[in-house]
Amino acid sequence: LIPNPLDRYSFSKTSVRRRSDGRWLVSFSPHEQEENWLPGATVDGKLKLVLRCYGPFPGLLENPGIAELPHIAAGIIP
Amino acid sequence: MRELLFWALITLALAVFLHLAAVWYLPRLITLVSARKLLRTSGRWNVLSYRGLPKAGGKALTSNPDMATASGVYDATAGPVRIACVLPGGDRYWSLSLYAWNTENFYVVNDRTAPAQEFSLVITTSGTRYGGSKNETLIVSPSKKGVIVVRMLVPDRSDRGELERVEEAMKKTAIGSESVKPLPDLRTAAGGAASRG
Question: Alpha carbon A36 to chain centroid distance?
Answer without folding.
Answer: 8
